[in-house]
Amino acid sequence: MFEIPEDRKVEFQHLLLSWWKENAQKYPWRLTSDPYRILVAEILLRKTSRGQVAAVYEALLRKWPSPADLARASEDELKACLRPLGMENKRAKLLVELGRTIVHRFEGRIPDNPNDLTSLPGVGRYAANAVLCFGYGQDQPLVDTNVARVIQRVFGYKSTKPRPRNDEILWQIAERLIPKGRARDYNLALLDLAGAVCRVRKPACHACPVKKVCLFGEEHK
């Protein structure tokens, strides 16, 4: 088990959340706790920038505001709405299938447990945990490529997996780093830090709010 000293963990949490209070990115799916709206956002955000998704998200949900509406949707109409994002054929088909599955298997309600969520079409561990965290208020970790990069840099863990986001140890570390009862803010702060500061290339270490506890930053002064 990869160990992180308790004082280092607490300081990381404090520095990150203090920074995020002033630097939070605002997107429409962050203004809701509706599990359906959050799930739709997670499907759309895959391999797509947040700005692109923001441009179509609210229009899509006005037209198809529930799983039942999605289950009855015309794929052609969905494709037209999703065209600015690309991969509209695949996305439209998936969203209709998702709506139908939720209606037929779960009476139109988004499941509130990981096993049922990951049984839905197109829903993996990350999307399931996002729904549980942002929609149901659970302290669930989120690990994507960006979060994996931040955790490895800050705490010095080196994943040996070709895709670190699939590294079980990283998921365990991410879970232990969550401040109890504050998973929503913490996860969003981590995602924003990765996008704005801890970038893949040319990370802004000089402006990083957690540089005081970051091993990567210490090595790259």
Short description:
This protein is mainly alpha-helical and 221 residues long. 59% of the residues lie in helices and 0% in strands.
Summarize the topology.
Blueprint (H helix, E strand, L loop, with lengths): L5 H18 L11 H11 L4 H14 L3 H5 L3 H8 L5 H19 L7 H5 L6 H11 L9 H11 L12 H10 L5 H14 L18 H5 L2
Helix pairs in contact: 1-11, 2-3, 2-8, 5-6, 9-11
Could you describe the 3D structure shown?
It is a single chain. This protein has 221 residues and is mainly alpha-helical. It is 59% helix and 0% strand. It contains twelve helices and no strands. It has helices at residues 6-23, 35-45, 50-63, 67-71, 75-82, 88-106, 114-118, 125-135, 145-155, 168-177, 183-196, 215-219. Helix 5 (75-82) packs across helix 6 (88-106). The mean pLDDT is 96.
Strand content: under 5%
Structural class: mainly alpha
How large is the radius of gyration? 18 Å
Number of helices: 12
Number of strands: 0
Enumerate the spans where pLDDT stays under 50 for 5 or more consecutive residues. none
Quick one: biggest sheet?
A: none
Q: Report how far the terminal alpha carbons are from each other.
A: 29 Å
Mean pLDDT: 96
Coarse shape: elongated
Give the SSE string: HHHHHHHHHHHH
What portion of residues is helical? 55-70%
Task: For this entry, give a set of tags.
mainly alpha, elongated, 12 helices, 221 residues, 0% strand, 59% helix
